[in-house]
Amino acid sequence: MFLGVPKSMVVRLGWMTMSYGTVQLLRLANNVILARILAPPIFGLMAVVNAIRTGVELLSDVGIMQNIISSPRGEDPLFYDTAWTLQALRGLVLAALCMLLSVPIARFFQYPQLAVILPVASLFFIFTGFDSTGRPLVQKQLQVARLSVFDIGIGVVSLIAHVTIALITPTVWALVLGSVITGAVTLVSSFLFLPGLRHRFIIDPECARQLLRFGRWVFLSSIVYFFAMNFDRLYFAKHISLSQLGVYGIARSLADMVTLFVARASNFVLYPSVAAAGLAPVDLRKRLLRGRRTLLLGAAVGMGGFLAVSEIIVRLLYDPRYLEAAWILPVLCVGVWFGILTSTNDSILMGLARPAYPALSNAAKLITYAVGVPLAFAFYGFTAAVAVIALGEIVKYVTLWLLSHKEHLQFGRDDVLLTLAFAATAVVVGEFTRILGVGGGLQAILPHLLPGAGRL
């Protein structure tokens, strides 16, 4: 045991941290290089493409891969072959829908380029649909080291593909084709991932029923999750310029780096560990409490420090065209912290086969966005709308906490103390940067976090 965290989990989290850090450095390098080559409107257009692509995929998600991880039959060839067949068929259907809807979508957003871009981007659905089940099988077996090496390799391929194409054609096609090539390489590599794994097209009725039965709440959760995660991009795409949307996308991608790490660690380590433990909620809480507290304290300090220097990071990495991201990022970081707390609780509940609770908490977040963002934008402008995006994560956390209370899995007292640690770190690091003369300290941060204090 290490400060309450089992040694095996420490090792797995170590691999996750190393691989995720490496992958994010590759993505950051990719982002910064492309920002030097490409104009902000190109990132804005690609933000719309990615939102549509993610939406089409999530709106038909029935948790096929999650089921392999959580089901006792997950390693049965008949079960995972049925899952793979359903996934492949779904990918083909999604690609066809994306092609058919490309023109209406282009007309709705009033960006004619989408009519040409979306049919090409639809290849991504085919590639992901035919991905081998090797990764979820290895994830079920908690072989995090193998998953880590795989992710780093794909990150290198993505960097090379995007930058090479951008140097050849500094247009939106650098982002589109770079993503498609990365998807194709991921597909091929997935069949080399687990030696000896082969798939056959088969649909066993009993396996299919089990997959779809589990997937009912995952389907609903995915629909709500998509709109909750992409409402900002879809709304802003209709109300701000592509250039401003591109800058917002840069800030959002930087903020998401931390959220995605915790979500990934939760999905690849916490979720399968909880599913395999088979404990009652009360016993599970006792086992998780100390380890969760230790790990999230590190996240609180790291996230608070990141918030304090976020404006400096933007100014150092990006040219003046992207300067607006310097105030957007600190605002989003507040929401990211509550998103981190929520991600751990999501994975615990999914491991206990309670997919309804994450769906309901995402619904609360979506309602906050659907009501709050348009009102804030109409009365106070873009700054207030971005603040509501952060507020939505807080609403989601509170909703999930109330639902978790029914399962005796609440961590409210810990989370209050952890949030104070997050805030205190942001203040201390911010003041330290002010003393060093490289940042504005708390006085510079507050107007961003509280728009009424300086911008409205």
Descriptive notes:
The chain has helices spanning 7-37, 40-58, 64-70, 77-109, 114-121, 123-129, 134-140, 144-168, 172-193, 205-239, 242-277, 281-317, 325-351, 356-380, 382-406, 412-436, 441-449. The chain is an all-alpha fold. The protein folds into 2 domains: 18-216, no CATH class; 240-456, no CATH class. It is globular. Mean pLDDT is 79; it is low at 1-5 and 452-456.
Determine the strand fraction and express it as a percent band: under 5%
H/I helix tally? 17
Gyration radius, rounded: 22 Å
The largest sheet, given as strand count, sense and whether it forms a barrel, is: none
**Termini, distance in Å?**
50 Å
How many domains? The number is 2
Layout of secondary structure:
Elements: H1 7-37, H2 40-58, H3 64-70, H4 77-109, H5 114-121, H6 123-129, H7 134-140, H8 144-168, H9 172-193, H10 205-239, H11 242-277, H12 281-317, H13 325-351, H14 356-380, H15 382-406, H16 412-436, H17 441-449
Essential attributes:
disordered C terminus; 83% helix; 456 residues; disordered N terminus; mainly alpha
Could you give a quick summary of the protein structure above?
The protein is mostly helical and 456 residues long. The protein contains 17 helices and no strands.
